[in-house]
Design a protein that fits this description.
The protein contains 15 helices and no strands. By secondary structure, the chain is mostly helical. It has a domain of 107 residues. It is elongated and about 85 Å long. The N terminus is likely disordered.
């Protein structure tokens, strides 16, 4: 019986080896067929993933490289896809994501480590979240966010449940250092798309404050502040009273500051952060409110100035600040003309 069992085990191992070698041989043949079309593909010049047909060829080639032990086993991805890609269809990203997850499992089994794929997988996942959100598919975006995080995802119903679930999602290690800020920003954006604008602004303002204080995520801080300003403008009528409270309490640490809503507390803390010396005066109440600029608009201008201070190379923040300054400068001049 022992010999029989041993023989069966040997036969099973032999069968696995034969299947493995056959799979690799077929993948190599497919790779040779793919070589011509892939060389003609202008993937690096496009603003997204290729068509599904070309993408299938990339997946086969990457899978063959993974099984053969080659280092070049990543499905090619446009280097700035997450920030600039205009492709709205989420299906190619989901297709690539499934293949990359399978590749990661193979690497874990073959080598015990999936480090070469972890960052690539995270970028794919976050980009898929982005396009699912833009399509209004909150359920898919939420599920993908759960895959991005290292924490355990729990199903919770209701609006507050979604917000609590998102607060538990986080990243750690090398992947967390690079993609953690993107995950935090995307969580807030999904919340906003789901109709929870106040919870989204609280989460995003808290993230912006954390990014600014860390001194390591300048671009993420700039983007989060700009997005916060965009959301404040969208809910301007409802947010005006809270922004007025920010102006009254800003710079004065009194017990009343703690009584402010979380969003107002976060904005107050943001406005108290020091600015980098850029050779331009800081926007203050003396130079704005005293000549006719509304208090809520003063807060908006200060936030725009903070965004330029965090990442001076981001043109979008300077454009927003210039637009704000022009709009209010014109109003002040017009008011002065009517007075005199």
């Amino acid at each position: 019986e022992v010999k029989t069992l041993g023989g069966r085990r040997d036969n099973s191992l032999r069968l696995v080896c034969v299947c493995y070698s056959t799979l690799v041989r077929y993948l190599k043949q497919t790779g040779r067929i793919c070589l011509g079309p892939l060389r003609l593909s202008t993937l690096t010049l496009s603003d997204g993933l290729p068509t599904l047909a070309t993408l299938q060829l990339h997946c086969c080639s990457a899978l063959e490289n993974t099984l053969s032990g080659q280092e070049d086993c990543l499905i090619p991805l446009y280097s700035e896809a997450l920030s600039t890609c205009k492709q709205q269809d989420v299906q190619p990203w989901l297709h690539t994501l499934r293949y990359t997850i399978y590749q990661r499992q193979l690497l874990l089994r073959l080598k015990g480590s999936s480090a070469p794929l972890d960052g690539h997988l995270m970028e794919l996942c976050l980009t898929a979240v982005k396009f699912a959100r833009k399509q209004g598919n909150i359920a898919l975006a939420t599920r993908l966010l759960g895959q991005c995080s290292e924490g355990e995802e729990e199903e919770e119903g209701g609006e507050e449940g979604l917000s609590r679930a998102f607060r538990r999602l986080s990243l750690a290690g090398v992947v967390g250092e690079k993609w953690g800020p993107e995950l935090q920003i995307e969580k807030a954006k999904v919340l906003c798309t789901a109709g929870q604008s106040m919870a989204a602004m609280e989460m995003l303002s808290s993230c912006a404050l954390s990014f600014c204080r860390s001194g390591k995520c300048e671009r993420a801080a700039c983007r989060s502040v700009l997005t916060l300003c965009k959301w404040l403008l969208a809910d301007w009528k409802d947010m005006t009273p809270q922004l007025k409270q920010v102006v009254k309490r800003s710079g004065v640490m009194t017990p009343g500051v703690a009584a402010l809503p979380p969003i107002s507390q976060n904005i107050t803390a943001l406005l108290e952060l020091p600015l980098e010396d850029q050779g331009m005066p800081r926007i203050t109440a003396e130079t704005t409110v005293s000549v006719g600029v509304g208090e809520p608009d003063l807060v908006l201008g200060q936030l725009y100035q903070l965004s330029t201070s965090q990442a001076p190379e981001v043109a979008k923040s300077w454009a927003a600040l210039a637009s704000w300054a022009y709009r209010w400068g014109r109003k002040v001049v017009d008011n002065a003309r009517y007075i005199f």
